[in-house]
Amino acid sequence: MGIKAREVGTVDMMCYLFTAKRAKESAAAEADEFRVMGRTVLRYYAAPKDEKGRVIEKPAEQPPAEQREGGMTPEQMVDVMTKQGIDKTLVCTNKMYSYKKRIPIGGMYYQEEDVHEAVKDHPGKLYGLAGYDPLKIHESVAKVEKAVKEYGFKGVYIHTYGYGLRPDDRKYYPLYETCRSLDVPVSMQVGHSLEVMPSESGRPIVLDEIAIDFPGLILIGSHTGWPWCEELIAMAYKHENVYMDVSAHAPIYWDPSLVTNVNGRLRTKTLWGSNGATGRAGRFFDQLDEMNFREDTLRLVLRENALRVYKITD
After folding, report:
1. What is the average per-residue pLDDT within 116-125?
2. 104-109/95-97 β-pairing
3. What pLDDT is stored for residue 45 in this prediction?
4. Rounded to whole angstroms, how far apart are CA atoms 282 and 195?
């Protein structure tokens, strides 16, 4: 018997801020995009399922009570990580806009200082990722520099859909140049927007020109790129500096071409993230075991690639 996914010591490269303060702000947010999402896709995702992902009547494994009822303390977060088989977690500073109202979405737009406060007392376990607001270029660039140089943040995560701007829009170029000079990666959601925002701007092919213009910058296309998985596979295969992550999507729902490439030629270019589902991560790992992924694939995708890309040594 080879190693199991839960035994790898996973690095979760994409998690949202988990604190009670953010949970409270999210609950109070007036965002039409999230209301609709709750009635559509999340209604299905939240339904109890068996180990093969089939909807069942009896309750399935639930996240810890503190996570369901209003966030977690850093200590609780580390405890949940340990129970699920996660060794380290990168917490992103999300700066999501409402496409309809063109204002920040409460609970989904927060500051680097909030993330730093949550991760600072748990080195070796919790790390920060900065955010970026393309409508506040100079302020955002300064925040990124401070987060990396003073707080030790490992990179940047961006969510572009609410701004109505493609990731290759020139308003993002100051960020890319800053991150190249700081030698930290930029990860971004590509593929469809789960929130009710236009998805076309997230087609993974937009990474093409960015990768050419910034050859020294590592770019990570997030969430498998679905429904344009082939585009993200092509970008990761073509460019030395383009990677992909498979966060958010359960392995049993991955496109066949994605499974083939993750377990094959792109196993050194793929990372895994929980997308905030820390308390249910073990279910993802069990599915990987059932799919008979190679042992070196599990080690690379779940741990080693993230350690290398984000330069984590502790």
Report:
1. 98
2. antiparallel
3. 54
4. 25
Residues near 123 by beta carbon (within 8 Å), at least 6 away in sequence:
314
Q: With bands split at pLDDT 50, 70 and 90, how would you rate the model's confidence at 49?
A: low
pLDDT at 90 over 80: yes
Pair 90, 111: CB distance under 8 Å: no
For the stretch 20-30, pLDDT in tens is 999 888 877 76
**CATH level 2 (architecture), domain 5-309:** Alpha-Beta Barrel (3.20)
Residues 6+ apart with CB under 8 A from 287: 51, 53, 250, 251, 252
190-215: b (≥16 Cβ within 10 Å) or e: bbbbbbbbebebbbbbbbbebbeebe
Contact status, residue 151 vs residue 114, Cβ threshold 8 Å: no
Averaged pLDDT, 224-246: 97
Q: Where are the beta strands (DSSP E) in the chain?
A: 10-15, 86-92, 95-97, 104-109, 126-129, 156-158, 186-189, 219-222, 242-245, 270-271
What separation, in Å, do the N-terminal and C-terminal C-alpha atoms of the chain show?
Answer: 29
pTM of structure: 0.90
- CA–CA gap between residue 137 and residue 64 (Å, rounded): 38
Judged against a pLDDT cut of 50, whether residue 63 lies above it is answered with no
Compute CA distances 189 → 15, 31, 41, 216, 276, whole Å. Answer: 12, 19, 17, 20, 14
Does residue 221 surpass a pLDDT of 90?
yes
Query: Domain limits of the chain?
Result: 5-309
- Cα–Cα distance list, 211 to 80, 214, 242, 272, 306 (Å): 36, 5, 7, 21, 19
Residue among 184, 189, 186, 183 nearest 204 (CA)? 189
Is the confidence at residue 222, as pLDDT, over 80? yes
**CA distance linking residue 76 with residue 195, whole number of Å:** 28
Q: Token digits for 234? A: 């092509």
